[in-house]
Design goal:
The chain is α+β, with helices and mostly antiparallel strands. The protein has helices at residues 25-29, 47-62, 73-77, 80-85, 89-95, and strands spanning 2-4, 13-15, 35-38, 67-70. The protein is globular, with a radius of gyration of 14 Å.
Length: 105
């Protein structure tokens, strides 16, 4: 999934990795010189969050001109049910008032 206008490095782009292992090195070749915030899907025992943190460390070394951070917002606000269902950022945006997400990292 892709949404946004990549013509300007200040424009927001929404990219979906589509699955836990979908966060590939190739996807980062096209987004040089940008700030990237990763929002891993929820999972039991923070498996997805931990995996994406490891992947982010590798990607920072491969692409030092990309500022990569991993958000723990979903981990902080998720219920057990949401975690068990593997909610992702899109699920939260669909099921919650979007204004609640403003000014959060």
């Amino acid at each position: 999934m892709y949404y946004g206008f990549p013509d300007n490095p200040f424009n927001t782009i929404w990219l979906s990795a589509t699955m836990l292992n979908g966060l590939s090195e190739d996807k980062f070749k096209a987004i040089q010189n940008r700030k990237v915030t990763l929002y891993p899907d929820l999972s039991k025992d923070k498996i997805a969050y931990n995996e994406w943190n490891k992947k982010a460390e590798l990607l920072r070394k491969l692409y030092p001109n990309i500022q990569i951070s991993v958000s723990d917002y979903l981990e902080k606000v998720a219920t057990t049910e949401q975690r068990n269902k593997g909610y992702d950022l899109a699920d939260f945006l669909i099921n919650h008032n979007w204004q609640l997400f403003r000014n959060h990292n």
